[in-house]
Amino acid sequence: MLSVVFIGFSFSSAVPIILLLTSIILGTTYMYEKHYLLKYNSKDSAVDSSINDWVLKIIKYACFLHIVISIFAYSYPCLFPYNDDLTCIPSP
Questions:
Q1: Is 84 left (phi over 0), alpha (psi -120 to 50) or beta?
Q2: 32, 29, 24: which is closest to 8 by C-alpha?
Q3: Element (H or E) spanning 7, and its range?
Q4: What is d(CA 13, CA 80) in angstroms, rounded to the nearest whole number?
Q5: Does pLDDT of 92 surpass 80?
Q6: Which residue in 12, 11, 8, 36 sits closest to 22, CA to CA?
Q7: Any idea what DSSP says for residue 47?
Q8: Has residue 45 been placed in a domain?
Q9: Residue 43 lies in a domain
Q10: What is the DSSP letter of 89?
Q11: pTM (two decimals)
Q12: d(C-alpha 25, C-alpha 22), whole Å
């Protein structure tokens, strides 16, 4: 789950549809795990705050990677051409 959020957040500025796909994947996973938990498991496992602390450490790297990929995506002229400039398309 964390990898889906990390990848979705990192590349969302270059490919905006990833936000929609990430939300669909997270929603589907939530519904599946909710069904699995309620139907097949009767006892919860012990969870402490160490997982939360680890995620908060990792999400800082996702924010930094999101900024770096955003700068690259918005500064690369061939990614979003605006004047019918076809010089970025290689000729066959």
A1: left
A2: 24
A3: helix 2-11
A4: 12
A5: no
A6: 8
A7: -
A8: no
A9: no
A10: S
A11: 0.54
A12: 5
Apex 86 CA angle, 85 and 92, nearest 5: 170
Q: Is residue 44 part of a domain?
A: no
Cβ count within 10 A of residue 8: 20
* Exposure on the CB side of residue 77, measured as CA atoms within 13 A: 7
Q: Residue 89: what are its φ and ψ, rounded to 5°?
A: -85, 125
Q: Where are the alpha helices (DSSP H) in 1-92?
A: 2-11, 17-40, 50-75
What angle, 0 to 180 degrees and rounded to 10, lies between the N-to-C axes of helices 2-11 and 50-75? 20
Q: Which domain holds residue 73?
A: 1-38+50-92
Amino acid in the structure at residue 11: F
* CA gyration radius, the chain: 19
**pLDDT of 5 above 80:** yes
Residue with tokens 């929609």: 20
The residue-averaged pLDDT of 22-51 equals 82
